[in-house]
Amino acid sequence: EVQRINGRYVDFKVNQPLPNFLLSKFLMQLDLKGHAYELKANHITDDQSVINEVTPFSITKSILSKNELFQIEGYSDRIEKMHDHVSLDISGVNFDGRQLFKNDDVSLDLTPAKGSVKGQVTLTDGIIDGDIVWGFNQTSFDIVGKSAIAKQLRLALEKINQFDIKIELSGPLKNLKIEVSSDLDGKIGEQIK
């Protein structure tokens, strides 16, 4: 039996190298609770540095009703470092009613409303930066109570039919900082003056 000599692997460079896995185009259609969505992506690979292309993607709703928009777009970039970005623009969203406050004197509920969600989020090497705005319009409030506070709230909120809630995200994923703000308190203050 002839013995083999120990050798070593030599990686010969080629003019047009290919990654181990490459999916040039991807299209998927989903039906979720009667709504059709379309997911598209390009350049899906295990090594973006070989093809020098980021992976762009989008999610859209196939059939839109009047005043409705559904668009999520972004990209995944692993060429030199991890850098992902997502932006979303969704309008015509139906928000369920919610109880916002309740005590012995007053109960404050947000009735079902229409709204939108817009924003962008970027993740770079484990650090997130983003903001998302939930816009509520065609809004009304249900205030139950006979106290002076309930009457004052009722007067203030009856003229407010839209408001925003802003969510800001920042910092490392393991210690994410989340700030939530709204313009609703300012609008209530204007009505009480």
Q: The biggest beta sheet, please?
A: 9 strands, antiparallel
What is the alpha-carbon Rg in Å?
26 Å
Task: Encode the helix/strand succession as letters.
Answer: EEHEEEEEEEEHEEH
Low-confidence runs of at least 5 consecutive residues? none
**Range of strand content:** over 45%
Tally of DSSP helical segments = 3
* Strand neighbour order, sheet with most strands: 1-2-3-4-5-8-9-11-12
Per the principal axes of the C-alpha atoms, what is the gross shape? elongated
The count of β-strands is 12
The oligomerization state is single chain
Termini separation: 100 Å
Helix content: 10-25%
Overall residue-averaged pLDDT value: 88
Which structural category fits the helices and strands?
mainly beta
Q: Strands, helices and their partners?
A:
Blueprint: E1 22-32, E2 35-45, H1 48-51, E3 55-61, E4 69-77, E5 83-95, E6 98-102, E7 107-110, E8 113-124, E9 127-137, E10 141-144, H2 148-157, E11 163-172, E12 177-182, H3 184-192
Antiparallel strand pairs: 1-2, 2-3, 3-4, 4-5, 5-8, 6-7, 7-10, 8-9, 9-11, 11-12
Helix pairs in contact: 2-3
